[in-house]
Every structure is written in structure tokens, then in C-alpha cells.
Amino acid sequence: xxxxxxxxxxxxxxxxxxxxxxxxxxxxxxxxxxxxxxxxxxxxxxxxxxxxxxxxxxxxxxxxxxxxxxxxxxxxxxxxxxxxxxxxxxxxxxxxxxxxxxxxxxxxxxxxxxxxxxxxxxxxxxxxxxxxxxxxxxxxxxxxxxxxxxxxxxxxxxxxxxxxxxxxxxxxxxxxxxxxxxxxxxxxxxxxxxxxxxxxxxxxxxxxxxxxxxxxxxxxxxxxxxxxxxxxxxxxxxxxxxxxxxxxxxxxxxxxxxxxxxxxxxxxxxxxxxxxxxxxxxxxxxxxxxxxxxxxxxxxxxxxxxxxxxxxxxxxxxxxxxxxxxxxxxxxxxxxxxxxxxxxxxxxxxxxxxxxxxxxxxxxxxxxxxxxxxxxxxxxxxxxxxxxxxxxxxxxxxxxxxxxxxxxxxxxxxxxxxxxxxxxxxxxxxxxxxxxxxxxxxxxxxxxxxxxxxxxxxxxxxxxxxxxxxxxx
Length: 473
Fold this sequence. Notes:
The protein is of the alpha/beta class. The protein has 21 helices and eleven strands. The longest helix is centred in the last third of the chain and has 19 residues, at 337-355. The two termini are 43 Å apart.
């Protein structure tokens, strides 16, 4: 949700920073098309990154449309993103509202902006909070405790922790607790997710005494069914954390663990975790089964039992409860044109499904975009499209070639339904005009035709070679 309100230039810089961090090299022409801006705008954004992150950049180059940027490997991505996001007036205003400072006149003094700009920011933040399901009373947001904490979590991840830090012994106790959970569960978390877990602990320490967490029983039961819950309880009992944090706060830590992505070091652990998630989220959840049936009917292919699909769907759904997912930290995911169309389809599909549920459930658009990218890979939306004629003297061979070619998964091959039994000049002209390839039976080729770049010899004995040649042509 945040990415729909953060200033566009800052949003682009956050995206570029993350892309450089993971890919090192970026194609400006491709990115300008995806982001819908000119290359000059992107170069200005890149120059802003160079200026803001100068001490963390170890190398930066540009060769025509290819730009590269390398960061010091010791610097985590989230800390780079914080240096960029800290300039967002929208995020800063959200933090002020979270702290109860909603007077936009005071905002002008804090951020040195005009009254009209402060008024627009106030209006924008209220619109964002209202869209997230926050109750607005007399132009003041009224947060539940969990909403307050989750919003504080995301703002702290993007802007940095700005409250008091617990005593060193409490921080050390948390480290023992976390290590115990990781050791027993065999889970691994990347630096950003470890930071999310740490921020969750800091929030618990800050608010646990004055604003203890209270979750509705159904949500508490849901959390305690998750695989990590037993590890959290055992670690709290076995480490000094119980001397610093009330047991009631474990539910909030459970919320944070539940929304964090993790991995494993062994295939055995991955399989065991998937079986547990499959049982809890798919087999024992009739609502999710209904959603999968909707997917299967809409896309006309089976998904139940497909591990890649189920893992992607579980990651999308597991943190969805009421409006809570809207406050979770998310990343900017840029979609290709065909993925945007799929995103809209998925939005409608999931919205129709969730509207029929006996409880409220909101999906974070950022997580849905990630699911769209993963799901498009499953549907192979971005496969190269190849159109071809088949010239052969046998109906059986035509069917054999057609079925084999259409079963290729690395690209999408469309075969003309017309069977051509000779390579006539008309067929060649049609192929040239429609930019199609011709797969011609080897025995029907003459030496002068075999050298044409859009004609590929094919036979039963050389079928695999012909497929490779077609894809690479």
C-alpha cells in the first residue's frame, strides 16, 4: 500500500537501489519502459543515488544504456533504502500521525514546508489510513494496538528506529532467544527479515507495559497453529528473555515471525516445512481450496498439488487477516504489460473470493504483485512467442511435430492449423509477410531452399535439433 503514496521520485530511487544491489547492472532502455519514464529521469535518479550513497558505493559505471553500481558487501540493503526513504515527507507525516501529532501547522515547522504542502500531506495520509481500514474520527486516526504496532514496524524499517533502545542485557537476551528459535527450527532469515524480527522485539519492549497486545481469539488460535509457535514458546522459556518480556507479548512476536520470509539449508527441511504448510493452509482450509478451484476454473489448468503454486499462494495468504497485511513491510515490484493484465485478473479473482468469506481479509497490493510475478512464471506469460507453419507429406508426422513443439516450455510455439504438403512460393510469401517460421520436412527441401533463414528442416530423427534451431533462430 505504501508504494501507492510515496513520492514517485523516491519510489523510483528505492527500486533502482534494490535492483542495483541484487543485479549490479541495469538496462536503462528496459527500465524506462517498465517504469514509464524517460532515460534522462532515470539518470537523474541514479545521480541522486550516487550522491546519497556515496560512502557505500565502491564502483559505478555507465556504458551506453547499461549502468552498473556495486555496493560494499558489508552494507545491508535495508540500511541503503533507509537513507533514501528518509527524504519521504509522506512517510515522515505517517510517523507524526502515529505519534498523535496530526496538526498540519506543526508539520510546517517540523519539515520546513508551506502550509498548503502540509495540508496536502495531511489529507494524503488520512486517505491512506482510511483505505487501510483505520477508523478516522474528527480527522484523527484511531488505531487498534496491532495496527499501531504494524505501522510502527514498517515505518521503523524504512526510516530507522527512533525510539529508546532497551538495556544491553535485554538485547542480549533477545539474541539468545532468536538463536534458539533459528537453531531449533533450522530456519534462515536474510538481513532485512532479521531486522524486521529485531524491530518487532523493540516494539514489544517499548509498548508491552503501557499498551499490552490483545488479539481476537480466532487470530490467536491461527497464530498458534503455525509451525514456528512452539519454537517461540520453548525459546522464551529456555532463555533470559522471560526476565524482560511478558509471555503475552509472544503473540506479537508470533505475528512478526509469521509475516517474515525464511529459507532452509537442506532440501529435507524444505520438504518437511512444505508438507506442514500444505496440510495447514491447503488441506485443512476449505476457504483456500475454494480459491484454488477458482484459479483452476479461470485459467483452465490444475494447480492443487503444484508445489511452486502452493508455496507462492501460501506466502500471499499466510499473513492475511483482517486489514493487518496492508501495514506489513513490502517492496516495489514492477510488472511487465502482460503481468499488469494478469495482476488485474488476480485482483478481481481474489476480491470476488474474499467478498464471500464470513470474515474480513485484505491483501497487500505489494504482495499481490510479487505473487503475480511468480504466477506469471508458472503460466509462462513471458515466454518468447514463435509462430510457425509445418510442411510435411504425412498427417501423422504433422500431429507428432505439432504436439511435440507445443509441449516445449521454454517458449510458446503456435503452429498453424493448416497442413502444407509442399513448400510452395505462396507458403514462403505468407511466412515472410506474417513473420512466421517454416518447419519443412527434410525430404521436401531442395538445396536452394535449405539455406533460407526462416526455413528449418525437420524430421522424426532430427526433431530435437529442429526444436533447438527454431528457438535460437
